[in-house]
Structure formats: structure tokens, C-alpha cells
Amino acid sequence: MKAWLPLIALSFLLAACATPAKYTDQPMQTFDRDTDYRVDERPNGFTVTIYYSRYQFIPESDAVAAACRQALTAVAHDIAENRGKKIQPINEQRIRLSFGRNGFTGITSCSATAPADFAQ
Q1: pLDDT digit string (tens) for 105-114?
Q2: DSSP for residue 88
Q3: Distance, CA of 18 to CA of 94 (rounded, Å)
Q4: Is the Cβ–Cβ distance between 26 and 39 less than 8 Å?
Q5: Residues near 97 by beta carbon (within 8 Å), at least 6 away in sequence
Q6: Cβ 108 vs Cβ 61: under 8 Å
Q7: Which domain holds residue 11?
Q8: How far is CA 109 from CA 36, 46, 97, in A?
Q9: Three-class secondary structure of residue 17 per DSSP
Q10: Domains: count for the chain
């Protein structure tokens, strides 16, 4: 029975792994250590998609959600500023979030996407 315990523990760790939904299959660029992003053009702005991940010993989905929203907003403003434009405030209701957790490595990840409209 004791020989089965490591196998059972490994099974539980692997079962605890989940990945967030992908909002794009296109290549992404690095924004910072924790964030990759992609920008897709739209007539009156662009859509920004990010993948955010970080290590958490104790999973805190609220903290990751807040950090993911903040990273998405930072990327959107940075992209607009590099283009010499301003964007309207991003409506948090339009941000789509998806979470994942790798119980084996302790990495919590988030995918997010939202439209960014240029200011008039």
C-alpha cells in the first residue's frame, strides 16, 4: 500500500493542473517577465490579448484576476501611447478572463482579451 502513495499523490497533482482558455492562436510578444501580449487591429482601435502567469505558493485567484486586468490595461495604454494616440477607458465588463493553475509547479495563469477604442 505504501508503494502506491507516491503514485496517488502524483495523480492528484496532475489532476489539479488546468490551463486557461486561449483567446488567440497567433504569436505573442513579451511585455514583461510575467506577460505576453498580442494586438489585433480594428477600425476604431484594437483588440489586446494577454497571457499572464506567476508563481503562487497559495493560490489566490482574486489577486491574479486583478493583476491580469491591470496588465491588460497597461499593455493597451502602452500600445496606444507608442502610436501617439489615447484610448478610452477599458470597460471591465468587456474583459474576458480565463484562469489556470498548475498544481505541480505552483504557476497560476490567466488569459485575457478586450477591445480598446481610440479616444475621439
Answers
A1: 888 899 999 9
A2: P
A3: 24
A4: no
A5: 65, 68, 69, 110, 111, 112
A6: yes
A7: 2-117
A8: 11, 23, 10
A9: coil
A10: 1
